[in-house]
Amino acid sequence: MSDQQRVPVGVRFKEAGKVYYFDAGEADLDVGNYVVVETSHGLEVGRVVIAPDQVLASEIKDVLKPILRIATVEDIARSRELRERASGDLRAAKRRVADDGLDMQIQSAEYNLDGSQLTFYFTAPERVDFRTLVRDLSSAFSTRVQMLQVGDRDRAKLVDGYDVCGQRLCCSSWQTAFPSVSIKMAKEQDLSLNPQKISGVCGRLYCCLTFEFDAYRELRGQMPKVGSMVSTPAGEAKVNSVNVMKKTVTLWLTEQHQVMEMPAIDLQMQYGLTVRPVELVEQIEAPLRKPAAAAEAPGAAPATGSGAPLQQGQQAPSESDADGNQKRRRRGRRGGRNRRPGAAGGG
After folding, report:
1. What is the 3-state secondary structure (H, E, C) of 126-160?
2. For residue 11, what are the CA distances in angstroms to 24, 38, 68?
3. What is the pLDDT, as a whole number, of residue 338?
4. 250 with 230: CB under 8 angstroms?
């Protein structure tokens, strides 16, 4: 079948698992239908989660395997029976690992549809030689055994459970992919930077730190940074802290020596979307204040006799004493008393 005639559908094999695409061919499928497909583990029963008319065929570049058939009642019953059987074999495999003294932990087990292959998922801190274990388990269960090592996050997804929030793990209930989480996200949300307080049952940083990170970053962009100097209606102030959820700013007024908390919207209404920093105030208003300060200074002399600005080549008048004689300015010698040898008047 050519690429123009393929009908891709999205199939999921586990709750909150990854979606795989197969070619529906001429089968009339809808969301919720169970199908039998060929995977790397053999025949498996999956559930259609993306209908053919909801998939953009242009985005799928890989060759799609065909859907073998729509799952029958017997296929679904067989899949449930093998799932219960895998639970019993999992306990037996854990006992065998403990007896052999292997540094590994088997987390989950599953059969394919025809029961020809049993896959165990395990975690281990270091590399483990499990070839003898595989032979023993294959002989005990009379089937082909495959061992796959997974990470800490995959372990939590397979085992399932509840976290401190009282809800099921996101990775086991609805989250299909693990996001990239960094300690910067916790810092942006004013959370504790202690890894033990912001880590889930998997031992890694909470995936939910990514849920509100963009909102916090957007709100902080509308507020001044902690430690910066800002210009407020009450004078210059230093930002002590910001409360993103309450949208308030705590300021230390440098002239009044007082702490004041005010809504960030009040500063935004006066200065625009962001608070005006002191550096910007000095850059704009300082040149305007200098002429006024010079005019108000006592004993200030005019620039010229007529008050007109100096022209090119014109010299400013020199100072005079009470008799009208011009005073000669003494040009200071560089170095003070330590004059250079050979200068006039030098020893």
Report:
1. CCCCCHHHHHHHHHHHCCEEEEEECCHHHHHHHHC
2. 10, 12, 13
3. 52
4. no
The pLDDT of residue 221: 82
Is residue 185 exposed (0-12), middle (13-18) or buried (19+ Cβ within 10 Å)?
buried
* Residue 59 one-letter amino acid: E
CA pair distance 54, 9, nearest whole angstrom: 8
Mean pLDDT across the stretch 202-206? 94
In whole angstroms, what is the distance from residue 34 CA to residue 122 CA?
Answer: 28
265 touches 242 (CB < 8 A): no
Domain ranges of the chain: 8-71, 78-150, 183-215, 229-279
pLDDT attached to residue 236: 84
pLDDT in tens, 163-172: 999 999 999 9
Lowest model confidence (mean pLDDT) among 3-7, 198-202, 275-279: 275-279
- Token pair, residue 144, equals 């082909």
The CA-atom distances, in angstroms, between 9 and each of 13, 27, 59 are 13, 11, 12
In total, the chain counts a number of residues equal to 347
Token pair for 180: 């990239």
Give residues with Cβ within 8 angstroms of 168, minimum separation 6: 160, 161, 162
Answer yes or no: is pLDDT of 319 > 80.
no
| Superfamily of domain 78-150, CATH level 4 | K homology (KH) domain (3.30.300.20)
Q: Which of 14, 32, 55, 4 is nearest to 22 (CA)?
A: 55
Q: What is the CA angle 253-257-260, rounded to 5?
A: 50
Residues 213-259 have pLDDT tens digits of 999 988 888 788 888 888 777 778 888 988 888 888 899 988 888 89
C-beta separation of 217 from 188 below 8 A? yes
